[in-house]
Design brief:
Helix content: 25-40%
CATH topology of the largest domain: Rossmann fold
CATH architecture of the largest domain: 3-Layer(aba) Sandwich
Strand order of the largest sheet: 5-4-6-7-3-8-9-10-11
CATH class of the largest domain: Alpha Beta
Strand content: 15-25%
Number of domains: 3
Order of helices and strands: HHEEHEHEHEHEHHEHEEEEHHEHHEE
Number of strands: 14
Structural class: alpha/beta
CATH superfamily of the largest domain: P-loop containing nucleotide triphosphate hydrolases
Shape: globular
Number of helices: 13
Largest sheet: 9 strands, mixed
Distance between the termini: 62 Å
Amino acid sequence: MGTVSLETMETWDDDSWRTALASNDHEAPSSPHSGVAGIETDGVSTIFAPMPPVPWLVHGLRLAPGRPTMIAGYSYSGKTLVAQSIALAIASGRLVWGIYSVPKGPALCLDFELGPRLIRSRFQRLARGMGVDPRELDEGQLRCAHFPPFKLDDPQIVERLTRACDGVAICIIDSFTASTSCDENSTAAGGPGYRLAEVSAATGCTFLLIHHARKPSKDAAGGATMAVRGSSAIFGSMGSVFVMGGPKGEPVRVSHEKEENGGQTLPDFGLAFDDVEIGGVPMAGLRVRHLDPEQMEEPKSNRKALDRCAAAVLALLAKGPFPGSVTTMRDILAVSKNNLSSAIAELLQSGKIVRSGTEKAPVWSLP
């Protein structure tokens, strides 16, 4: 192949690249299994082959295999609960927080910190709040290991986790500090993140790592990013980072501080934790509810408006399945789009309504 200008290469599509690579007469090895001094390498044909789409696990939250995603937050900010709700949604094939679609897949929770009673009781309350019947799940669909006999910086951890995470869609690790023996203020603290990336490359598992943080301050130098505790090497080893925080008793604000796969962070959003009354028991269930930025500013009196909106949706679906978008439903019910979106999310999570159809052509109905 002769010399080609950079301007010409910028106009090539995938077929042009394939033609050019097929005519490559260089003698350098291009097989992905070729090696240099015993090191397996990629050659030209592999390096410049068209890239496949990102294998998103939860596209709406930018969760995908690769370097781990971190959820950082100070004590009692709800970070473990948030991770458990994501794991249960994936294990059961439910929407995450009622809005983000996921493929159904096995979930693994490596609990280095809380112990079986707290983890199990939270999963049970979340299942009730989300309308998940445990009898729907295969035995291996959701698994927990409490106080595992290893650390993420152990010499054989890659081999060990590769075996444990084979076939697992998502693995929750709680927490970074409890699962490592290194000083979190040392640059060596970045090592566990890179090891998890190696395991992910071998298994396709998406890792969600929980870490403690200082109370974030948007006004401080570095903003919420500086709330992540420990060496900057920890932040650097992550593929995506969410920081949670907010006043006690109010919804938490979630700031997306880093994202590598898609290249663009998500706007800030909120999460509310609602007790769900079942059978006269006020706290039998628990629900994590997504809030748009506008909803974060709404007064608590908006609860009545959401309840009225939910009642209107149930009355509409009592007449039969409704094929159409949320916008179409809003026009029929003459309600606020934000209120309708929140009401639908709550109804889906509680199992009071069901969504079928496709992403672009949903069908809403009663169960």
